[in-house]
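**Backbone description:**
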Amino acid sequence: PQRILELGAGDGAVTIAALERMHADSELVALEVDEEFAAVLAERCPDARVVRADVADLGKVLGGLGEGPFDLVLSGLPTPSLPDTARAAMFDVLDAHASGAPFSQLTVMPWVYQRFYRRYFADVTFRLVPMNLPPGGVYHCRGPRRRNGRAD
C-alpha cells in the first residue's frame, strides 16, 4: 500500500488509471484548483480523496491531512511554467511531505524540459508516449537536489 499524491488532476484521466493500478489499500489524494474539474473528478473518482486547492497552498492542505508522507507524486501541472514562488512552494512542501518519493511529470513537450528537471533531481529519465497527440511523455525523477529548501 502507498500514499499517492496527484497534482493538477484535471478531470481524472490519470487519476482513473492510477486507481485501477494501485494496491487496494493505497490512498490517492488528487489536488485540483479548478472548481468544475474538481467536481467532475470527485464524481468520476469516488475512491480518490479530491482536494480543491492551488499548488501554492499545498503546505496548508497537506499539513491538514496529517497522515504521513507520500510514496509517489504524479504531476499534471505545467511545473516549468509555474510562477517561481508557486514552484518553490511546491518543491518545499514536497520536501516535507514526499521527501525521496519518485516524482513523475506528464508533459506534451518531449525532451524540452529535461535540463529543467535535472536541475531539481539527480536521476531523470524520460519515456516518450508517441500515441499521445501531440506526442508527449513522462519524466520520471528521483533524488531531489535540495539544500536549505532550494534547488541547487
